[in-house]
Amino acid sequence: MASKGQPGNYALVWRSAEGRLSVRGLPPRVHLDRVYTNGLHALVPFWIANESDQDVTVELTTEGPLKVQQQNANWSAVSAAQRETYVDVTTAPAGKDEVTMVCSATIQREFSEVFNQLGGVSSIRLAAQATAELVLLFVAEAAETDSGDGQRYEYETHGGHVTLRAGTDSYDVALRASTCRSVLEMEPPTSRIYVDDCVIGRTYERTLRVRNASAIGLDWTMTVVETTDPSLSALQLLDSDMRSLSGGHLGARSDTQVLVRYTPHAAGEFLSRFLVENSNDPASLRYWVFRARVSQRQKPRRVELLSDPDISFGDCTSGVWYSRDIRFKNVSDTPVVMRLRVEGNTAGLTMKSAVRADGASAPEPNTADADTPIPTLSELISSRRPSIVDDNPSDALTATDDVGSEGGSAELSSRVTPADDSTPAGDGVRAGESGRRFVARARAARGHKAALFDEMLIKPGAVRTMTLSLLGNPVSSTSVSAGQFERQSFTLFGESSTAVGTQPTAAPPPGTASNSERNAERLSIPCTANMCTPFVRVVPPLLDFGSVDVGTLKSLYLRVENLSQVAATVQCKLESKVITCTRAPITIAPQQSVSVRVDSYPRRVNARYRKQIIVRNIHNRLNDSVVEVRSTHVDRRRVAFHNLFYQTLVPANEQNFVDFGLVPLNARSLRRVNLRNVCRCPLAIEVAADAADAGAFSAYTVVPQRDATGRLTDAACQVARRLPLLERQAAMHSNIEKFKERTAGATAPESATLPPRSSLCPVAVAPVPRAAGLTLQPDMFIDKSVEQGHVCLMPFSRPRNRTVLPPSLEYLDIAPATAKRRNVVRIRGNGNSDIMAAVPPESALLSSETPSNLDILPAEEDVEMIVSVIERAEQILDEIIERLDMIPQTLFASPEAENAYVRRQVDLHKYIDLLVESGFLQPAHHVRLTALGTESLIVILQPAGTPDKPAPLRFDANLYFKLVDRPGDLLPFTDCAAVVSFASADQLPVRRFLVQAALVQSELELGQKSINVGNMQVDEACRKYLVIQNRSETPLMYAIRKTGSIASGDICFVDSRYGIVRGFDSRKVVFVFSPSLHGAYSEQISIANVLNARGGKKATLKAAVRRQSKFYIQSLRLEFGTLEPGRPSADVQVLAIKNMTPKTRHLIVKSLLASDDGLSDVGVVLEARFPPDIAAAQPARLLDRETEEKIESLEQKLKIAVRKNRPEKVEKYQAKLAKLRGSGSGGNGNGDNIQAADAVPDPTGVQIRRLVDDTQLEVELPPGGDVSIPVVVTAKLAGPKADINAGANALGTLVVHEVKDKDNVKLVTLAASVALDQ
User: Fold this and answer.
1) Among candidates 513, 273, 262, 232, which has minimal Cα distance to 406?
2) Does residue 605 register a pLDDT over 80?
3) Cα-flanking dihedrals φ and ψ of residue 894, to 5°?
4) Which residues contact 706 (CB under 8 A, 6 or more apart)?
5) Which helix (H) or strand (E) holds 87?
6) pLDDT tens-digit profile of 563-576?
7) DSSP class of 452
8) What is d(CA 256, CA 276) in angstroms, rounded to the nearest whole number?
9) Residue 737 has pLDDT above 50, yes or no
10) Which residues are within 8 A (CB) of 684 and not within 5 positions of it... i.e. 6 or more apart?
11) How big is the chain by its Cα radius of gyration, in Å?
């Protein structure tokens, strides 16, 4: 039995090692469970007894967040009844010695923390056989983390140790505590309820949810802080059982619903402010406000809110636009003008709005013309300016003061912009996107596609959608909320009034109120956003490379740390010919860091090299960092000797490295390196690549047009002949998939030139020069009708040789051409010269035995033609270098623009092969530079790698330049002492040219590699889709191709055949399958990865295609209800049959007799009979599914017209219904609404003949005709009546087939239930 003052559940006693001390209430291994992390102490009482006959001194030692007090006022105040239930002790299971203890949180809430803060004791004196009461205090400090909504709060484990020592005797206690922070949250997070334009006597209900976001239970209370009605007679707070609610207990991660019911009694404004407090953690509390405005009106609202009554923008990053749609509907009979304003905490927020009609597509970001200069990031994000992404401050709403929950108001801007402007980019594009994507998004936010407004007109019954866009301005680093989420709440108020005429009413004079304002209805929408400004730190602030030799690579690293709770995007900006680092945007996860490699590759001697690297925080330009770079450049190996003879320009800056940026594996990227001779004599340079990296990149030079004598080179002539032939065989989009456009453009005048490029290809293309008197055929080297801006060298076939494909074969335009090659197109001039006459056959031109020299000299006009082809090839090369994207863009004005962009990228990749295969790009081994001349070196990089064996993140290789011809005395300087020591070219130093790239993955996957459609009929259509998944971070360009066979023409892609999938995203591509031939169908669909040629996938489409049915039966099951055996059914069902062909069909309709197999399983069978007066029957018409859907739609419209009392529309809909049902067509009811192709129905041609009494018929159906045959059944017993259960289901069967085709049989099931007489 427990002693006085000790809980009854403290029955267990433990002794020290030598037995001098006994301890009650504190086992050697104790687990203190369910401790709240609220900064308050948890008290555990225990007792120490001296079991010896001598006085002892007990020393108390603690480790961890523990201390021991001998006197605690809080514990002394606990009553004896409370002590009995204060501690809940659970003994350890078998095999374990740990005891679990849970202290009462309800009793601990009454403790004063002042007494718990007093110091502890280190020793106590115990008399012989005496007992002392002690209190062990444990505290877990609250974590300094933001308590934003959506965060999970789990249990944490803390440890401690207590030692009791009396001389040589000791008692050790190991304590383990499980603590958790108790957090209370509310939904919706706006914590505001506004009810405007209330009517006296009506009841308005809103719901709130109080949620426990932690893994430990909590107790909560709700109290009124402020109210305009102390009695709260109009407001009730109810639980799910409709009982009054003021608090309660919530288990781990549970919630409860609070029903707010408001019944106004008088006109005016009502305001109540409530406090929802977490009893277990005073710091976890929420305020919410109920506000109502009661008017005298008795009519319903004019405008209804169709979208959510509360708007939550979620977690937002400053500098990024976020948008939400709000839908209004005018339910009155008159036009309504709605005026909008914003009230609340809008400090640091920029808001814009755009309105569109219901059903209109959401505003798309505008892809501005490439000629439009892209604003710099400093222009896009400036410090504390409302025009962060807009040049006109009047377009934005920016509140500079924190007005609180009931603060001042601001009006939304009112400005009308052209309809083709853009709108803020969509739903919170976070910081993980590329710089180009951010620039495009921010530039798109500079205008709006629809009218910006502070009032809008809504017609009767119309629905308008308003897009509210929100942008947070960065805060300073000294702000309290720097790097932390800050909740901002505001309210969008709308006042609706009746419009006069069709335009909004003019504003009344100051001091007066118009009639519409007096009758205005008010609508409020609470809004909330969790805004966070990203902050980063860059270390070290100084990079000192020390001494770096010319031509030597040295690297150092910067560490960029993200100090905020949201992802940050940084970009390194520098202008240097020596220093290089990644310039692509880098995304840093919250509270994480990344390393950025900085390379120094000096090209000449410089004793004091200084440069700055600006690390830009894209979404917070106030946080930009500057890193200083220092180095000393020396030339111990005298590599700078090369700078005296030639320069390497990339593209116009002199530098000795080329950076490809981000390059996907297996993708080809091009860069141009210009070698400029600064000497007054020719130079010869030998070019070589690293042997280990020879397969990953290579260098090419452009074929020379003329030799030293000014004549065309043989290589240029060969390129002029081979390149058009190769392009004609290539599956380019300009000559395969644009067949119709090419056909139409072939008749263009011969003097026509290439049209200007579109905005996607803004580089101007010069027309092909024509020689005087030269007549080029319209099918020669320029396609005048290809897609906009497309450069084409294809010698298309002439119009007179073209045959236009019939519509049934148009699908062949999209398959690669595999037909026999056509003859070479000849170019003839005025002098009857024919340069193509000497060209070998096409097969010979493309073979390895192609002659390298021609025996004839080209005529003058043919020289012009060859020069024009070479110039056009150079323009193609410029287009590839400028427009070939390794990281594709993702923002497009329309799906058509996206399709054109991807097609263009596919063509550019194909042109690389054409330029290399034709010989226009030749491998660079020796490069000759004329005096003061420039030659281009084309570097093609294609890093190899697979997902199984990924390549390294960085690609570093070298090109080596060696001077093989020494200039002699024609040097551009007088002092040659530095170079005279080199006796021969072999002694000249070798220069290393650095090639760098950052490698990324581009991985394509399919959601379903085999698509089985199942059974289908010929000419039926079904919609299926391919799921294209992007398994990499970079955007994926895909191209869907078909095999080009006849069966591939049955597959038709609706759209998105060429498109882009964002990083770690997927896309559904819909296609329509309509088989034209019967049999087993199996066709492959290839999905190519445009950038990674090895990453393509194939999907197989399978189906079992049947022949088209020659006749159609509307229902294959007829129900006859309940029958008595031996009596015919009272219900007459109709068997409707339709002829689906343009020929007359003879059908047999018969009943399957009881003697046939499978009919006597239940003891009752149904035998069908056809009444003898079948010819006189007038059954209903046979309607197809499409007609039935039209009738159903018209019936709904008829109901609406009747309800709205629109007699003219009622008559209109009734006439249409009568026509569809056949009553108003004057027909005889046999129906002709289902028409076969080219079939003229003849209802009068239906003939029916009886073959076997009333159980078998022969029906003759004319083309497209149908017939309805009445059917009655009789239930017959197939066994003893006693063996049949009452209500048993009886079945029968009708067989329908053609007279001459018994294989195509259709069975109609007859069903009924049998009633037996007792």
Assistant:
1) 273
2) yes
3) -160, 165
4) 712, 713, 716
5) strand 87-90
6) 999 999 999 998 88
7) B
8) 13
9) no
10) 926, 927, 928, 929, 963, 964, 965
11) 43
